[in-house]
Specification:
five-stranded antiparallel sheet; single chain; alpha+beta; 5 helices
Length: 356
Amino acid sequence: MLFVTPVLLVGVLLLLVGEGDIKPATTTTTTTTTVPPARPQAGWTVASSSARGVLVDYIDENVGGTVFRVLRLRARTTLLRWHAGSLDPPGAGALPPDAGPAIDWASEGRAGVVAVFNGGFKKSAYAGGSVADGVTLEPLVAGDVTLALDAAGHWRMGVWGAKGFPAPGFDAISYRQNLGPMILHGALTPATAPADFAQWGAVYPGGSLTSRSGLGVDRRGNLLYAAAIGKVDVAQLATALLRAGAVTAMQLDINPFWPVLGASRTPLHAPGVFPVQLDHSEHDPSIYETGWQRDFFVALAEPGPWVCSWASPGLKPGISGAQPQPLSLTGEGCRAKLRALAKREHAARNVSTTPG
C-alpha cells in the first residue's frame, strides 16, 4: 500500500491546482517550509509581503491614454471583509462593528490591514443587493454579478442565480452585488459596448465618461481592483482588468467623488498610512479608518505560518438578526502566533496607559 505523507500531499495539490487556488484554513503539515511562498511577478510592484510571500502588489495599465491603477490581493496570503457605510446602504446601523462604517481595529487590526477600497453604487441606484453578518440590507438580484465572502475571508465572484455559484460548501457571510458582469469567461461582455453606456450608471455631469472603479478575479483566484480618476468609459475599465488577468469582473462605484484606494507597506494594527493610492483621488483612504458614509472593503494579512489562519464564526442557521463575525486564529500551528499576538497587544496597552 502506498503511504502519502501530509507534506507530499500538499506539494501534489499545489502542482495540480496552481499557486493561487489553495488558501488553507487548517492543514496537517508540521513545517512552514513545505508550501512555496506567493512569489513576485515581473511588471508588478510589491506593496506588502510576509513570511507567506507577497500579500498585495499593483501595476499601472494604460488603456486609451488613461492610466488605471490595478491592485491585486493574493488569494493565499490575504483575506477580505466588507463594510457598510454610515449612510448607505440604509440599515447599516443594525450591523456589528466588524461590518460597520469604520475598520474594526479590535478585530481586523489584530490580523493587520493591508488594503482598503470603495464598494459599489448607492442602494437608491438599484444596482444590486447586499448582505452582511446575516442582515439583508438589500435583496440579492438574479443576473447581477456578485462577490461572496465566507467566514475565512475567502472570496468568490460570479453571476447570482447561475448554476454552481456560489459553489456547494462555500458558506458566505457577506454578499455585494453591483450591476451585470463586465467580464465573463475571460472576455469583455457585449454590455461594455459604447452604445450601452447608460446601463453602467448615471454620469456626473453627463455623457458616458467619468472616473470608474471595478473588481475582478483572475484564473488563480486572486482579487483585482482597478480604478482611474478621469474621463473613461466602462470598456476601458474592463480592459484594464482584463489585461491584469481578470476572468470575471464587475464595476464598482463611479464619478470622481467615490473611487478611493489605499494599500499599506506593512500590515496595520492601528490607524496608519496607506502610501499606495489613486492619483488625483478626492479622498485619502484614511477615511476608512475612522468612519465613512459609503460601503468599502478591507483586506487583511493572513498569519505567517501556513498552519494558522484567521477566521470568524460563520452564520448559524435559524437565527434572526445580526450575527457578529469577530476574527480569531484557527489551526494547529497557531500557538506561536498567539504568543506573539498577546505580546504585541500587551505592549500596545502599556503604551496607551503610559502618561504623556
